[in-house]
Amino acid sequence: MADLFSMKNRVVLLTGASRGLGRDMALTLGGAGATVLCAGRTVKELEKTARAITRKGGRAHVVPLDITDEAAVREQVASIISRHRRIDVLVNNAGIIYREAIVDTTTDAFRAAVETDLVSQFMVAREVGRHMLERKYGRIVNISSIMGILGRATVAGYVAAKHGLIGLTKSLAVEFGPHVTANAIAPGYIRTELNVPLQRNKEFCVMLEQRTAAHRWGKPEDLRGPLLLLASDASAYMTGHTLVVDGGMTTILA
Ligand SMILES: NC(=O)c1ccc[n+]([C@@H]2O[C@H](COP(=O)([O-])OP(=O)(O)OC[C@H]3O[C@@H](n4cnc5c(N)ncnc54)[C@H](OP(=O)(O)O)[C@@H]3O)[C@@H](O)[C@H]2O)c1
Questions:
Q1: Exposure of 78 in the CB half-sphere (CA atoms within 13 A)
Q2: Which among 201, 121, 192 is positioned nearest to 154, based on CA atoms?
Q3: Ligand 1 centroid vs 95 CA: distance in angstroms?
Q4: Nearest CA to 44 among 17, 9, 18?
Q5: DSSP state of 9
Q6: Cα gap 139→10, rounded to integer Å
Q7: How large is the greatest C-alpha to C-alpha distance in the chain, in angstroms?
Q8: Global pTM value
Q9: What is the end-to-end Cα distance of the chain in Å, rounded?
Q10: Nearest CA to ligand 1 atom 1
Q11: Rounded distance between C-alpha atoms, residue 109 and residue 85, angstroms
């Protein structure tokens, strides 16, 4: 049964592997047998992730990449294909968040969130997708958020982009089938650098504990099973789906 979720002989391109959820995802995929191509801007941190994988006997390489740079995306995807021959799995994980009321948010700040959290995922999926279509195999996993399902004050660009990413996932599923699947994960609140201000906000933490069945913040390891499901052949008949992993936050009215 474990073979169903195996990543053996799979080459995975994972963006945002330098810290937070991406680092844990990289270790999870590497531990399941994949060669993990760790992409992001901070090479030193990517090297730490890659070393953590190789120390455990896995395979990993660093891919310096700013996902908002279209020319760099094209170049890196081409160079990966020539070096590794294939990309079996793409995990579009990199993302940013700005916190400001709409009336104080500049158009540039709104645009920057949408560029990094939606337009870049489109560019990477298009470049990798062309190659997956040719090879007739691929798994695309987009990391959205419960902010792709709900609205929330002060994060309009993020909310708009994460809703858009769920829509993009459905479009990728339609155009890339039958051999390439595209699914999304919508995590709830998981402790990382992205949400330090909320971790320090007592009122928010009380609300979070009441609105989750587990009465706690999520941990990066809570995403391991869902990620392996969508990245492996276990999900061969799932596509266009958004898997919500939020401890029940979007289903509980508390
Ligand atoms: N933590 C949560 O509670 C939560 C909940 C729902 C969804 N998510 C989503 O999960 C993903 C990871 O979040 P996280 O909490 O791990 O955040 P994080 O700790 O802030 O890490 C963000 C990652 O994205 C990378 N990144 C940002 N801009 C980039 C760019 N232009 N090019 C390449 N890489 C870039 C960063 O790497 P560099 O800075 O080194 O480039 C870093 O590795 C995000 O998409 C986030 O929206 C998180």
A1: 6
A2: 201
A3: 4
A4: 18
A5: T
A6: 10
A7: 53
A8: 0.98
A9: 38
A10: 190
A11: 38
Q: Whose alpha carbon is nearest atom 23 of ligand 1? A: 16
Q: Where are the beta strands (DSSP E) in 73-203?
A: 89-92, 138-143, 180-187
What's the CA gap between 97 and 13, in Å, rounded?
Answer: 22
DSSP 172-232: HHHHHTTTEEEEEEEE--B-SGGGHHHHT-HHHHHHHHHHSTT-S-B-GGGGHHHHHHHHS
Q: Which token pair is 191?
A: 């402790």
Per-residue DSSP letter, 61: E
CATH of 2-245, one of 3.40.50.12780, 3.30.470.20, 3.40.309.10, 3.40.50.720: 3.40.50.720
Which pLDDT does position 133 carry in this prediction? 98
The answer to whether 137 is a known catalytic residue is no
Instruction: Give the pLDDT of residue 6.
Output: 96
Q: In Å, how far from its chain's centre is CA 52?
A: 19
Q: Pocket residues for ligand 1 (CB within 6 Å)?
A: 15-16, 18-22, 40-42, 45, 65-68, 93-96, 116, 143, 145, 187, 189-190, 192-195
Tokens of residue 101, six digits: 């009321």
What pLDDT does residue 39 have? 99
pLDDT at 63: 98
Residue spans of the chain under pLDDT 50:
none
Overall residue count recorded for the chain in this entry:
254
The domain locations on the chain are 2-245
